[in-house]
Amino acid sequence: MRYELYYWPTIQGRGEYVRLALEEAGAGYLDVARSAGGTDAMMQMMQADGGTPPFAPPLLKAGKLVIGQTANILHYLGPRHGLAPKSEAGQLWLHQLQLTISDFVAEVHDAHHPIGVSLYFEQQRVPARRRTAEFWKERVPKYLGYFERLLAAGKGAWITGRTLTYVDLSLFQIVEGLRYAFPRRMAAFESNIPELIALRDNVAARPNIAAYLASERRIAFNEDGIFRHYKTLDL
Fold it and tell me: Which of 53, 76, 200, 206 has most Cβ atoms within 10 angstroms of its Cβ?
């Protein structure tokens, strides 16, 4: 099956977690909004009357199915491409972990836009500094510490053991994003999460992922996405 992925064409954002899974699986897909007329097609899907229109991208079209929400898309793709356990219990556990990652991604965004997404960063610079300080003092250690403990207690290099899953790919993206957005803070924090850093390195070395990262398909981090670098927040 050739999938159609719908996401904003100039940012990694929440769509990147889906891209990483498709790339690792070697699955054929079209990144629709990056082609002519693709963004308009995406908007039409969300604004459709009747049926089950999705709320927001990313969206994955798989045959007649249109699936929204990053964790939901990965829950669908994982078992079909060897990126999830075979058991129902294992798949639900993986989905639970991905939902936890989704919660953390929202907190990453709120660090630089704590008041509202419709306001520019310059309009909320002072609250963002306070939010970022709390984010690094309380939230980053809580979330990354949780995944670090899971990896340390496991029986393999990956979050569920010896087989890579889509959650491992998502954790790679978390580390990469934090390194971009907060290079100084992250450099000081990485000694606390050696297992996560090793996982990041193992993912980056996988042939399909390495090829993707070196290609034009990988959109560069920028200040329109979720992970944004503002020097005033990286103290």
Answer: 200
